[in-house]
Design goal:
Elements: H1 2-19, E1 38-50, E2 55-60, E3 70-75, E4 90-97, E5 102-110, E6 139-141, E7 146-147, E8 156-162, H2 172-187, H3 190-193, E9 196-202, H4 210-221, E10 232-236, H5 239-248, E11 253-256, E12 259-262, E13 265-269, E14 275-280, H6 286-297
Parallel strand pairs: 8-9, 9-10
Antiparallel strand pairs: 1-2, 1-4, 2-3, 4-5, 6-7, 6-10, 8-13, 11-12, 13-14
Length: 300
């Protein structure tokens, strides 16, 4: 009799716990592209939903074998699920990662009652527009030398933002690969190479010291003919200076532990020191930025 009572109580407890959770069926995942994607289980709480961009920002637990717990935006394989997702939802999903991109698939959503509030990224404020003068913010490069965009007037400058510990291949690693290809294409055109510069700016100055940035940058330059080490600089600065500089380009970033949840911004500064073009996100190719640099350089 005691055993039956305990079993009945257990069943009631299970039913009570499921009554406060609104669950949905997982979205059927798409086939992995070319079999190159490695799957990782991901669990966390939804911070924000970008339906137009097909992304969800998740404050997630540690992803075993891949990255620590943090808050990050993720592309979603089946965007229809975003219509139902809300901040505060608990999700489980499969994070598929290859060397160029990552996305979530097979999302299972739970909406428990009393979900605690989660941190959000500050809203994007006003930022520079093409034709506006770029800021002459003091930066420090990988050699420990101070400089600013004002020192590079007369040259067309490509600028992007990264931090060296970024784990997702479609964020900072893609910017690094794209800039590496831009450097290769520019180096193949000596005339254009002499009229241009590239700068990758870290918004993690506490970790990305000049020495760290130099060690991180140098492998990208190996084996590329005609490369001049000072042509592509990695830079950082004080917290306030980076905030000022990033703000002009509309970059948002929020530190969560050792990592950052952040947007992407890549720009070209004309030789007169004014913003020539700006790209948000990662859907651009190296040849497109080279074309912008060529057009900007022709203004000199």
């Amino acid at each position: 009799m005691v055993r039956r009572v305990k079993r009945a109580l257990l069943v009631l407890a299970v039913l009570a716990s499921t009554a406060v959770v609104a669950c949905r069926k997982p979205v059927a995942p798409k086939p992995a592209s070319r079999g190159l994607e490695k799957p990782y289980p991901l669990k966390g709480v939804v911070v924000s939903v970008d339906r137009a961009g097909g992304k969800v920002t998740v404050k997630h637990d540690e992803v075993p074998g891949y990255m620590k717990a943090m808050t990050m935006p993720f592309a979603v394989g089946e965007t229809k699920i975003l219509d139902d997702l809300k901040p505060g939802d608990t999700i489980e999903a499969k994070l598929l990662v290859n060397d160029r991109s990552s996305h979530l698939e097979g999302i299972i959503v739970s909406r428990p009652s009393g979900t605690p509030a989660v941190e959000t990224i500050p809203a994007l404020g006003p930022y520079g527009k093409p034709g506006d003068a770029a800021p002459a913010t003091a930066l420090v490069d990988q050699e420990g030398k101070g400089f600013s965009l004002a020192d590079l007037k007369g040259e067309a400058v490509g600028v992007t933002f990264i931090f060296t510990r970024c784990p997702l291949p479609d964020f900072c690693p893609r910017m690094n690969l794209n800039f590496s290809e831009v450097e290769r294409l520019l180096a193949a055109d000596k005339k254009l190479y002499g009229k241009t510069r590239l700068i990758s700016v870290s918004f993690d100055p506490a970790y990305d010291t000049p020495a760290v940035l130099k060690a991180f940058r140098d492998p990208f330059l190996k084996g590329v003919p005609g490369v001049v080490p000072g042509h592509w600089r990695f830079a950082t600065g004080t917290l306030e200076h980076i905030k000022e500089f990033a703000g002009f380009f509309g970059l948002t970033y929020l530190k969560t532990g050792e990592q950052f949840v952040h947007s992407l911004a890549t720009a070209v500064i004309a030789p007169d020191g004014k913003l020539f073009s700006i790209r948000r996100g990662n859907d651009w190719e190296a040849k497109e930025l080279v074309d912008d640099l060529r057009k900007a350089a022709a203004r000199d």
